[in-house]
From TrEMBL:
Designated name of the protein: Tify domain-containing protein
Lineage: Eukaryota, Viridiplantae, Streptophyta, Embryophyta, Tracheophyta
Organism: Sesamum latifolium
One of the protein's GO biological processes: positive regulation of transcription by RNA polymerase II
UniProt entry tagged with the keyword DNA repair: no
Compartment(s) of residence: Nucleus
Stretches for region Disordered: 69-91
Residues annotated as transmembrane: none
Amino acid sequence: MHMGSGNKRPSQYIFLDNGKSLRDVLNACKANLSESLETVILKAIGRSNYTTAFCINCKEFIPEARPTHDSCVLPKESGTSDAQISDTSRR
């Protein structure tokens, strides 16, 4: 369902991949005022174990827990200099 439907409560009929409705997420946000909004939403959508990580080479943010960016582990034979690698990883 979407906003153009005749349903007066579309958030009850919009479902996430984990089976929870958008209404479930909104209710969790209202019920957990002591926790940060980000924490409550991550728990509600099933990503409570989400952690941030930083590349050990360039110290840039990595959205998943890995030691380095893919661009930081390119082979030296590729013809790409270290300056080019670090420049592209910051974009």
